[in-house]
Structure formats: C-alpha cells, structure tokens
Hints:
By secondary structure, the chain is mainly beta. The chain has one helix and eleven strands; from the N terminus they run H-E-E-E-E-E-E-E-E-E-E-E. Strands 1, 3, 4, 5, 8 and 10 form a six-stranded antiparallel beta sheet that branches. The protein is globular, with a radius of gyration of 30 Å. The N and C termini lie far apart (76 Å). Mean pLDDT is 75; it is low at 16-28.
Amino acid sequence: xxxxxxxxxxxxxxxxxxxxxxxxxxxxxxxxxxxxxxxxxxxxxxxxxxxxxxxxxxxxxxxxxxxxxxxxxxxxxxxxxxxxxxxxxxxxxxxxxxxxxxxxxxxxxxxxxxxxxxxxxxxxxxxxxxxxxxxxxxxxxxxxxxxxxxxxxxxxxxxxxxxxxxxxxxxxxxx
Length: 175
C-alpha cells in the first residue's frame, strides 16, 4: 500500500510539472503610466555634469576670528565634467556648514593643478560659500581648463585669520 501511495504522489508531481511546462506563459505588462520603451534610433539624452571621483587629503588648518577664538578649518574640492572635454567644474567645499556662517564665509580654496598626461598646468580660485550671505549655501563651480586625463592638484585656503594651514593634495581623472 505504501508503494502505491509513493507511485501516486510521483505521478501527480510529474503531471503538475508537465502541465506547467506546457501552459502558456503570461507576458508582464508595464504599468499604464510607464514611459515608452526606448527605440534603437532614439537620440541620447543631453549630457550634463557628471561627478568625478576625487582622491584627496583635505586642506587642514587653524583659524582665529574677531573674538580670538581658534577654530579648525577643513576644506575639500569636488569635481564634475562639463559638456566640453578638457574643461572641468571645480567646487571648494567646507567640511562643516558652520564655516559658511562664521567670519570665514569669504574663504576660498586656491587649487593648483597639473595634468600628467599632457603637461597642462593651471590654477583656479574656488569659493567655499556664497560671498558674505551668513547662511550655509555652497558656492557654484569654477571652470578649469585641465585637459582630459589624470590630474594632480594641491589646494590651500585663502582666507582671513589663518594661523597655519596644511595644503590638501589629491588627484582625479578629468573627462
């Protein structure tokens, strides 16, 4: 009797698998509000700024304000592509938002760079904050003619009340 039960279960399993294998497969339908599928000859979307990874050691320093209160300074840069190859957007960034609400809100980073692929060198002054607004609002980018390829840079702070600063160094691959 046990043998007949095992045979019956095995036959039922094969029948179920055979039925599933021969049944028509339903096609998934996209939602009604989904955008249309791209066609082969569709134009590419317009290129926009693409963030570029930056390997860096940030700029470090100690500042003193009007009340002779020491404060730390940490500044980094961010990089993005432009629509023109060889031109690069560079932003100066403070590690902490309070830098832009203090007496350092006029600070900027002087970025000196060299493209080791083509030898192009240059320097840009990248503001950290919107000038003198007293709130944390990062500044817009400056455009640097870095050329395409690997770029090495140093960055040092240009601000009032810097007691000492250690320049930041790093590199990125310019598009």
